[in-house]
Automatic annotation (TrEMBL):
PROSITE patterns: GLYCOSYL_HYDROL_F1_1, GLYCOSYL_HYDROL_F1_2. One of its GO terms (cellular component) is cytosol. This is 6-phospho-beta-glucosidase. SUPFAM superfamilies: (Trans)glycosidases. It comes from the Bacteria. It holds the Pfam family Glyco_hydro_1. Its EC number is 3.2.1.86.
Length: 481
């Protein structure tokens, strides 16, 4: 059997090709139609952004003189029909998106949901389904209603479990006839690395941050399990998954100390998915909690809830692999999707210093499938790069085509090796606000949006060269890679 024949076999009939966006990076209209403030609405551009993302928030209101890119974003809230028509032109089978919690419950603890918010997503899903595009919906994608942060301490409080369960149940009841694929928390392991982004955590002076983060993690994990339970009861034909910011950690050398360190760094992330997929705290997590004098407050039924309500599939993002070394002399680092790492001398980097490792995509997919034996769903993968339109407006993004083509070739190989993959929704099919930096110039899309880092621009949409490339990938079900 030749390679071309193998590729033809790789992507099964019904494979969900598409793209992925998030409410807080695309919608804008940040207080429209009754929406409340969310955590991301307090993240400005510039130097303060990173400090706040780490949990050092100085104000529960946007400040004068700061630019908050989420407030307008790319105005998907008002332009979704235009954008979905472009996605349909590419042949999308799925669009992964998120619902803004504060559009549904503006304060998070409201007695009744906001009908205007519910109606917006009704209309959005109807527009997708009109074109035969499956909504793949993330319930919480890096946004918590600010009221829950200010008055309850966000996910450090057990009360958030109940608020989230009510929110999720509201969604399942409303959209059970429109949504077949759900995910609970986006990149749930980000809680440990960007606690304000991942869980709305704001730290007090001298507080034990590990204690707070792992207690918040437990609350999110219980809330996720309760959402799985509700989904299975309300919409038994639907599938609900978890979502991991993935990327295997390589040991810099074959020194066993490096290998052990790589294993432990991967476990920081697997901790969440182990519980969501297997239903219990793994032994290594129990040891870590004990060694760091962390006390997890649990209710009597928590372990049963986790055990009986595991996810149907594993969603994951993949942008880069990571490398670690225990040798202090090997200390040259590079950037990544929040996860910085030792620079891998065998790999190239993007303009933002992110390692480019297509084969790592295949390794990571195999690693996850071997570990969990559940279907995978690639819900983020892409290249953030500077795209400068030519005089006629054309954007020739061969660098993006090359990146995605190589990654999809490796995903094809992983599938051929027996990895079960439901679909592939590349990150940012349309240019949107960068989650980490708040920039617009860090572009991922097949569709160019005329807007700059300062918020200037017409917001006009135009097709890049990669638009036609991805259209052909979808129409041939990956045979042209």
């Amino acid at each position: 059997m030749n390679i071309k024949e193998e590729k033809k076999m790789a992507f099964q009939k019904g494979f969900l090709w598409g793209g992925a966006i998030a409410a807080n990076q695309a919608e804008g209209a940040y207080l429209a139609d009754g929406k409340g403030l969310t955590t991301v609405d307090l993240l400005p551009t510039g130097q303060k952004r990173w400090d706040i993302m780490m949990g050092n928030l100085s104000s529960y209101e946007p400040l004068e003189g700061e630019f908050y890119p989420s407030h307008e974003a790319i105005d998907f809230y008002n332009r979704y029909k235009e954008d979905i028509a472009l996605f349909a032109e590419m042949g999308f089978k799925a669009l992964r998106l998120s619902i803004s919690w504060a559009r549904i419950f503006p304060n998070g603890d409201d007695a009744e949901p906001n009908e205007a918010g519910l109606k917006f997503y009704d209309n959005l899903f109807d527009e997708l389904l009109k074109y035969g595009i499956e909504p793949v919906v993330t319930i919480a994608h890096f946004d918590v209603p600010v009221n829950l942060v200010k008055n309850y301490g966000s996910w450090r409080s057990r009360k958030l479990v109940g608020f989230f369960e009510k929110y999720a149940t509201t969604l399942f009841n409303r959209y059970k006839d429109k949504v077949k694929y759900w995910m609970t928390f986006n990149e749930i392991n980000m809680l440990l690395h960007l606690p304000f982004v991942g869980a709305g955590l704001v730290f007090e002076e001298g507080e034990d941050k590990k204690q707070v983060k792992y207690q918040a993690a437990h609350h999110q994990l219980v809330a996720s399990a309760l959402a799985v339970k509700a989904c299975h009861e309300i919409s038994p034909d639907a599938k609900i998954g978890c979502m991991l910011a993935a990327g295997q950690t390589y040991p810099y050398s074959c020194n066993p100390d490096d290998v052990l360190d790589a294993m432990e760094k991967d476990r920081d992330s697997f901790f969440f998915i182990d519980i969501q997929s297997r239903g219990k705290y793994p032994g290594y997590a129990k040891k870590f909690i004990k060694d760091h004098n962390i006390t997890i407050e649990m209710e009597a039924t928590d372990e049963e809830i986790l055990q009986n309500n595991t996810v149907d599939y594993i969603g994951f993002s993949y942008y880069a692999s990571r490398t670690t070394s225990t040798d202090p002399e090997i200390n040259k680092t590079t950037s990544g999707n929040v996860f910085g790492s030792i620079e891998n001398p065998f790999l190239e980097k993007s303009e933002w210093g992110w390692t480019i490792d297509p084969k790592g995509f295949r390794i990571t997919a195999n690693q996850l499938y071997d570990r969990y034996q559940k279907p995978l769903f690639v819900v983020e993968n892409g290249l953030g790069a500077i795209d400068i339109p030519e005089e006629d407006g054309a954007v020739t993004d061969d660098h993006r085509i090359d990146y995605l083509n190589k990654h999809l070739q490796e995903l094809s190989q992983a599938i051929d090796e027996g990895v079960e993959v439901l679909g592939y929704t590349s990150w940012g099919p349309i240019d949107l606000v960068s989650a980490s930096t708040g920039e617009m110039k860090k572009r991922y899309g097949y569709i160019y949006v005329d807007k700059d880092n300062e918020g200037n621009g017409s917001l006009e949409r135009s097709r890049k060269k990669s638009f036609d490339w991805y259209k052909e990938v979808i129409s041939t079900n990956g045979e042209n890679l």
